[in-house]
């Protein structure tokens, strides 16, 4: 999978950089040991040369040098161990439980339909080094209601429509750092919709609807699946099936996604982690 390459390569690069650093440190250690031994041998030579002469000062010097090298070795080993520990603790991001999208014209992941009530949410985490790409999309099958989450110049932009009046919320910056997982939560609470990215929150209020049912998000029969990272390419020939047709022309997301969780009508108000239904990462 091409997509996995950049992330995994970076993963590997930083790991191998770490290993190189550690190897360099080990080399330095080995070098300093060799150097130390050579110097000690030199000192011993000096000692041998001076056996007949002033043996006392040479032995003291040798002892001091041994102490010095031993101290330096210990210090270097400590730094080297600290480096490895820091790399393990704060180094390359983990891709456990994540799936990777290559960002090609056909890559996407499909999840079960999300049927939000006016007290529901959808959340996920992403990791990328690309500033733009469609993160998530779902709609009512081509009528009015939709949710589009997009990364725009390193910022999360949510566009949504629950009652014929589209709204936009934007949160975050420089989210395409390629090293950190960023968490996106979209939560509905009555007339309020909130977008939270890494605990920074923005909200939008809907006007009171003419009919309470207008606040519904489509229905379970007609709604599209939830698409992450892009949409299936057959949508390009059936734009009328989309409430926001422009979504198929958006750049696809290149990066990793994990922990897609819904609270909706089907989850009885309990957050439920979703499994991928279909997943396409490359041209065929
Ligand atoms: Ca609606």
UniProtKB/TrEMBL annotation:
The keyword Transit peptide does not apply. The chain crosses the membrane at residues 78-101. One of its GO terms (cellular component) is membrane. Residues 98-284 form the Laminin G domain. Residues 21-38 have a biased composition (Basic and acidic residues). InterPro entries: ConA-like_dom_sf (IPR013320), Laminin_G (IPR001791), Neurexin-related_CASP (IPR050372). Residues 1-50 are annotated as: Disordered. Residues 1-11 have a biased composition (Polar residues). Keywords: Membrane, Transmembrane, Transmembrane helix. This is Laminin G domain-containing protein.
């Amino acid at each position: 999978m091409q997509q996995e390459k950049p992330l995994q390569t970076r993963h590997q690069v930083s790991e191998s950089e770490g290993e190189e650093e550690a190897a360099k440190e080990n080399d330095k250690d080995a070098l300093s040991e060799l150097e130390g031994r050579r110097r000690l041998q030199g000192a011993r030579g000096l000692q041998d040369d001076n056996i007949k002469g002033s043996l006392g000062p040479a032995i003291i010097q040798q002892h001091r040098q041994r102490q010095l090298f031993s101290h330096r070795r210990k210090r270097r080993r400590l730094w080297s161990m600290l480096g490895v520990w820091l790399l393990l603790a704060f180094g390359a991001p983990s891709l456990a439980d994540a799936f990777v999208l290559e960002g090609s014209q056909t890559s996407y992941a499909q999840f079960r339909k999300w049927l939000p009530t006016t007290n529901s949410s959808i959340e996920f985490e992403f990791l990328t080094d690309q500033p733009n790409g469609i993160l998530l999309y779902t709609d009512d099958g081509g009528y009015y209601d939709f949710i589009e989450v997009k990364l725009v110049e390193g910022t999360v932009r949510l566009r949504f429509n629950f009652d014929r009046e589209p709204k936009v919320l934007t949160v975050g910056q420089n989210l395409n750092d390629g090293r950190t997982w960023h968490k996106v939560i979209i939560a509905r609470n009555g007339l309020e919709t909130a977008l939270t990215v890494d605990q920074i929150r923005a909200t939008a209020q809907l006007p009171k609807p003419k009919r309470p049912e207008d606040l519904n998000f489509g229905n379970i029969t007609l709604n599209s699946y939830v698409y992450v990272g892009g949409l299936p390419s057959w949508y390009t020939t059936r734009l009328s099936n989309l409430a926001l047709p422009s979504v198929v022309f958006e750049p696809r997301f290149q990066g990793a996604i994990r922990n897609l969780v819904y609270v909706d009508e089907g989850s009885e108000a309990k957050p439920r982690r979703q499994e991928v239904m279909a997943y396409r990462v490359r041209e065929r």
